[in-house]
Design goal:
By secondary structure, the chain is an alpha/beta fold. The protein contains 3 helices and 7 strands; from the N terminus they run βααββββαββ. The protein is elongated, with a radius of gyration of 21 Å. The chain starts with 5 loop residues before the first strand and ends with a strand.
């Protein structure tokens, strides 16, 4: 299986590196200690501490593996100044037809998408529809709630 490219902003890559460091150097050793203490309690069949530590350990190891793969295949994108076209790393201000307020999103790779923070994936319906478009363009987006039309008001 070939590694797929993962697009990250420099900030997103740094956040993932910090999380990986925390998991490897803090969480993993803490869980190892917790597991060792649970094993010392004896009977493992009905030992809730042991089973909890094993579950947490499995999650942490899976997350470490995921982060290492993402960072290994990452292509760092940068928003190096203004452009007249939406691309990865662009901050885009849009307004839905019929609405009076703007929404601003940064177009990022799927690994760092977080709509609550205004970061949407280039693979999401809105992100994909905005890519390559210009200020003033009207963009139709098929969303789970139906078709929505946005006007691009600003691109940074």
């Amino acid at each position: 299986m070939a590694d797929e490219k993962t697009y990250l902003t420099p900030e997103g890559a740094e956040d993932l590196r910090r999380e990986l460091d925390q998991l490897i150097n803090v969480r993993r050793p803490a869980l190892a200690t917790k597991l060792k203490e649970a094993i010392a309690e004896g009977d493992l069949k009905e030992n809730a501490n042991y089973h909890d530590a094993k579950e947490q350990q499995a999650f942490v190891e899976g997350r470490i593996q995921y982060l290492e793969n993402v960072l290994r295949s990452a292509e760092i994108i940068s928003n190096d100044g203004s452009t007249d076209e939406v691309r990865l790393g662009s901050q885009v201000t849009i307004r839905e037809d019929g609405e009076s307020t703007d929404e601003t999103y940064t177009i990022v790779g799927a690994a760092e998408a977080n709509p609550r923070e205004g970061k949407i994936s280039h693979e999401s319906p809105i992100g994909a529809a905005l890519l390559g478009r210009k200020k003033g363009d009207k963009v139709k987006v098929a969303t789970p709630g139906g078709e929505v039309i946005f006007k691009i008001r600003k691109i940074n």
